[in-house]
Design goal:
Two copies of one chain form a homodimer.
Chain A lengths: L2 H6 L2 E6 L12 H11 L4 E5 L7 H6 L7 E4 L2 E4 L1 H9 L10 H30 L4 H26 L12 H10 L4 H4 L3 H11 L2 H21 L4 H7 L1
Parallel strand pairs in A: 1-2
Antiparallel strand pairs in A: 1-3, 3-4
Chain lengths: 237, 237
């Protein structure tokens, strides 16, 4: 899909209708919303209900039963990295015209998702998605050291610069910021320049608009997903 | 960098001069070599000695002190995904002309590195790079379940098809094969169609040429990295 297809639209993305509190502001459709906001491209959202992500309708758009997917005109793309890169290619809002800078943006987009996000995802797995908490805690220092080494390299490369590529905000900063803000505070605290980097880009109006938009359906649908409280169970019993 | 830059060359990639046996055939420069072989692009190799990967010369090309990086003309790209994608864009050897198929190739390239490789990398971390082996073994089933779920979705999407996109080998198959062959056999054994998929693409002459080329310096430099045996230590003592 090219810039013309994006301009014709309609652009539709998928997102959840609700997630548990800890995932609010961290579901990956946020990255597409942010890129679309930066690029000035209006979009619509197809909400996927919890439990329906592995149903046939969503699997047809997204083979792993995840969100997001993106449909432009009649064509569907999946994977956050692929969608954000295609959005970036539509204009110079996220991707400079200079060829060397475009190459650097591609490198950093993959670096965010591959080199940086892999150890962040491992830490999340250990902290939130493993049953044996004591074992996970015993493994954590090894993964934490790997993450710290990579964050240290990133901080060293960035120095005091506000941007990864050239003198302006690009898709490289969008993806790196989105990935870093999914790390836990404790993992970033040794790197104040990275904390400042994330805060600076999170303050962008396009990010705030994207974040607000992700949260709206969560508020609207919260009641439907509320578990019965003990009082309710008592009344049932 | 565009197709013309690749044709002008020279194309140079970085690779290690030696790695321990378990990493042979699995260092990521293999993915660039394979893509370059498929695209019919001759390349040269700058070998990085063990211990020098975090030295200033390599950090200038690769901010995380890894291999590979790729220099075309005077321009340097890093991250395997970025390098392979730019190689793919140079011709129709790895990327079809059809726009929808190109989009699908981009989605699957990111799917390989992000959705599939994340749990594979977690398994490798637990098996090979953690100090507390008992704790790692206790965490393994949770990660293994995540990996199996994703491999199951991949196998379901692929079915009996030999290729992920259209009727021919593309960069999507190159990246997915490269990622899957870094999983351990035990993790793939429930998915015979994926084992067959990997074997089919590993049989390609371009893959074999890439693999052979990666191994040559390891053989040549093995003696330099051989640890003193107990006999040698005895003689020293």
């Amino acid at each position: 899909m090219d810039a013309e297809a994006f301009r014709r639209g309609p652009i539709r993305i998928t997102a959840y209708d609700w997630v548990p509190r800890f995932a609010e502001g961290h579901v990956r459709d946020l990255r597409l919303r942010w890129a679309l906001e930066e690029a000035g491209l209006p979009y619509e959202v197809d909400l996927v209900a919890q439990g329906a992500q592995r149903g046939p309708a969503n699997l047809q758009r997204q083979p792993f039963g995840q969100v997001p997917a993106m449909t432009v005109g009649g064509q569907t793309l999946f994977e956050t990295g692929a969608c954000v890169w295609r959005i970036a290619e539509t204009s110079d809002a996220l991707l400079p015209a200079d060829e060397a800078e475009r190459d650097a943006c591609l490198s950093w987009t993959f670096a965010a998702l591959d080199t940086i996000e892999k150890p962040i995802a491992m830490m999340a797995m250990l902290r939130f998605f493993t049953k044996d908490k004591a074992a996970a805690a015993a493994v954590e220092p090894d993964v934490s050291a790997l993450l710290a080494e990579r964050l240290g390299r990133l901080a060293g490369t960035l120095g005091d610069a506000p941007f990864l590529v050239g003198e302006r905000f690009t898709v490289a900063d969008l993806m790196m910021t989105a990935v870093l803000r999914d790390a836990e505070e404790v993992d970033l605290q040794a790197f104040p320049s990275l904390i400042a980097y994330v805060a600076r880009h999170e303050a962008r109006p396009a990010f705030q608009a994207a974040l607000d938009a992700q949260l709206v359906p969560f508020r609207e649908n919260a009641a439907r997903y509320r578990r019965p409280r003990s009082g309710a169970i008592d009344r049932l019993g």
